[in-house]
Amino acid sequence: MGRSANPLAGLARTLNAWLDERIDVSGIRELIRHKVVPVHHHTVWYYFGGMTLFLFVIQVLTGILLLLYYRPSAEEAFESVQFIVTEVEFGWLIRSIHSWSANLLVATMMIHLFSVYFTQAYRKPRELTWVSGMCLFGIFLFFGFSGYLLPWNELAYFATKVGTDVAGQVPVVGHLMARILRGGDDVTGATLSRFYGFHVAILPLATTAILGLHLFLVQKQGMSVPPEVERSGHPFRTMPFLPDFLLRDLVGWLSALAVLGALAAYFPWELGVKADPFAPAPAGIRPEWYFMYMFQTLKYIPAKIGPIDGELVGVLGFGLGGLFLLLVPFLDRKAARGEKSPLFFWIGIGIVAYIVVLSVLGYVEPGGK
Amino acid sequence: MRGSWLLLASALVAGSVLLPGSAARAQKLPEGNACIDCHRGIGDPRVTPPAEKFPQDIHLAKGILCQDCHGGDPKNFDPQGSMNPAKGFIGKPKHQAIPQLCGKCHSNAAYMKKFNPTMRVDQVQEYWTSVHGRKLREGDQKVATCISCHDVHKIRAIKDQQAWTYPVKVVETCGRCHGDAKYMEGYKIATDVVDKYKKSVHCEALTKKGDLSAPTCNVCHGNHGATPPGVDSVANVCGTCHSLTADFFNQSPHKKAFAVMGLAPCVTCHSNHDVTKPSDTLVGTDQQAVCVNCHDPASAGYQKAAAIRTSLDELRGAVQRAAGILDRAEHAGMEVSQAKFELRGATDALLKTRATVHQFDPVPIKKLSDEGVQVANKMYDKGVKAMDDLRFRHRGLWISVGIILVAIAGLVLKIKEIDRSR
Description:
The complex is a heterodimer.
Chain A: H1 7-22, H2 26-34, E1 36-38, H3 47-67, H4 77-86, H5 91-118, H6 127-149, H7 154-167, H8 174-182, H9 189-221, H10 227-232, E2 238-240, H11 241-266, H12 292-300, E3 304-305, E4 308-309, H13 310-331, H14 333-336, H15 342-364
Antiparallel strand pairs in A: 1-2, 3-4
Helix pairs in contact in A: 3-5, 3-11, 4-5, 5-6, 5-11, 6-7, 6-9, 6-13, 7-8, 12-15
Chain B: H1 2-18, H2 34-41, H3 49-53, H4 58-61, H5 66-70, H6 79-82, H7 98-106, H8 109-112, H9 123-127, H10 131-137, H11 146-150, H12 167-178, H13 193-198, H14 201-208, H15 217-221, H16 234-239, H17 243-251, H18 253-261, H19 267-270, H20 300-331, H21 337-356, H22 362-421
Helix pairs in contact in B: 20-21, 20-22, 21-22
């Protein structure tokens, strides 16, 4: 096919030439041209990072649209969300996709996190990529926690009460932290304003910075190859990122979009009833599914363990678990040397099993639903 | 095991919180009181109950002891001295003397004020106006006196949930005599009233819904002045709660007609002790309707009954139709809470229409019903719109999924083409 036969290719060339005259983009072009993705039997896990990023973009776009109508006050928040889902054209779709996408995002992020963990991709020289990823994990959980309260419905109100109570159990700074989160001693309209601020300004700002670093490191260092593949000595092939890997990514993203659409159409996200701070806590209050294992753990821990508060023990346990995951590249010395590290493998299995079992118990136990 | 311990602990905590007047609230009996010491220590079951029951009596809590009712000298441990008539000892008071004995304090406003400034002091005066009081004066030894309803030596405050006079317990208290056919022999009054009442909407509201304002025996018959309401006063009795309905009835032509025919208002159509939740079928011209008991098909009343029933049916049908579609939309995940809230306007109109039935005039009833139907139809339209939206969403989804699948198929073909070219 002759050059002039494809008008789009011609336009792209013209645009490239225009840009080249002004900014030197040859470096970026070369990076994209030479970027490759290793092909082996763990390649499938590479797609979950991109999927999480895609869902984040969906969150940003739908979040911006919701911002046009949402009003962050205890008096108007519930009514404004009600207005969005009943009166605004396709408001129901945007709100449902925002809520469902948030949940899918946490799910794909967890898969991404544990696939990186089990393929030991955190090992030298990618320690910073792992640490920035763990920071993003914490930020996205806080995104979920803060966003849950914004519709100001009964379930979210009491779940936030419980959640901020738990934060208050952190030794030394707990009380201060709970007060900062709530904007006072209790969950009120001030808490809603704060959570709104976190959700639409502070967290997106932090995400932009850390996600930028995370993506930069991934581009700079390339995809990690699991040590077992390296150790096997068999040569493995690679595929160009553009267009081979990106096209495959697109298949996944489009499938995710179809799933989101189906969930929004058949299982629209419930609005519930408006929060009433003076009403007693309703039966069956529960957090989002990704906090369920923590919620369930706190239910099992006795009120007192010796002289120490049970909740404090739980909070310390989760804190240590998070710290362990954050520091795993520095703790797992064997992985750094490219050796097998069965201890860390089994610790990882234990963590996943704990999260799955406790979460399931949270939903199947009487009163858990 | 841990669960059962928790259960036990919860039950104990709940028990102590929910059961006022239980052992936890029993008073300590005073030391060095001859009456209590002897009655408690004598071991004869004929004389021990007063001392055994007294720790839970409200009088003990207020510092009123044996001698305040029975006289005598509680400081004297010689029976001859402590139960000396010269010291005012009266022993077990006679049945007919009980109202006066209780009234000694309870009719004394100055004395009762010390304990509760708002406490009424006309109970004994009212008692003498009751059938019980009148018969007691005639020498009837079986009729109820104060202790028949309030217990003796274990008298509780009326707000105490274990008191015989607590609203949910009143029917059992009255039923001890009025539900006992053998005991009531000779009085020529029905003894099935307790069983009937237990089937009534009032009993359901009181005992199952916990609505303590729902009527029990004393609310309609009076308590200390208990008397069956006569034909003339039934409407006033029911009207104390159902005031709007009573007003409508008093404005209606039925008031005069019932009086002429000697029929008691309210109970002629709704019954009395076993009054059930009225349904719209009570009105009209079919078999279940009570109107046909008096109105023959040629009468104007018969035509009015038919018209009233039509208005009721139209409004009820419109409300049910709107509620049905809104429920379906809600179960499908549509947000219809505002429409459901607005539908209350039609439900309220139905309630008002049902009350207005007691005017027995089809014109205002039709007007109210039409207003309600209008609201219900508007909400039905909102339900229809919600269901249309739902179908639109599902159609839109499948069209979008189709487009996405085509795009995915194109991408897969492109990927294969690239793979083949390498």
